[in-house]
Amino acid sequence: MIVRNDDHNTFDHVARTLSRFIPGVSLERGHQIANLIHTSGQAIVYSGQQEPAELYWEQLKGAGLTMAPLEQA
Questions:
Q1: What is this structure's pTM?
Q2: Which long-range contacts (CB under 8 A, 24 or more apart) does 38-43 make?
Q3: Which ranges of the chain does DSSP label H, i.e. alpha helix?
Q4: What is the pLDDT of residues 9-53, one digit of tens each?
Q5: 41-68, pLDDT tens digit by residue?
Q6: What is the distance of C-alpha 34 from the center of its chain?
Q7: In 3-state terms, what secondary structure has residue 15?
Q8: 44 — alpha (psi -120 to 50), left (phi > 0) or beta?
């Protein structure tokens, strides 16, 4: 599951959102991922089973993050 860079989300919002919804992502790791998204244009934030991926995708999108389309396995 990929989050893309955009011009409307702050680093802090991205980091907090990732740490809130993605299991195992701390706020510190969220900031690292936010920086990667900013510098690379996008980052993989979750790789795993389809059902939880769909839930996390909806949660992140609902929180305003710019999501790449969810790939079907």
A1: 0.93
A2: 38/5, 38/11, 40/5, 41/4, 41/5, 42/2, 42/3, 42/4, 42/5, 42/68, 43/2, 43/3
A3: 11-21, 27-40, 50-62
A4: 999 999 999 999 999 999 999 999 999 999 999 999 999 999 999
A5: 999 999 999 999 999 999 999 999 999 9
A6: 8
A7: helix
A8: beta
Contact by Cβ (8 Å): 30, 16: yes
Confidence band of 73 (pLDDT split at 50, 70, 90): low
Reading the block at residue 53, the tokens are: 């991926």
Task: Provide the residue type at 58 as one letter.
Answer: E
- The token pair at 3 is 């989050």
Instruction: Return the SS3 of 71.
Output: coil
What is the distance of C-alpha 61 from the center of its chain?
Answer: 9
Amino acid 64 reads: G
- CA torsion sign for 38, 28, 20, 22 is positive
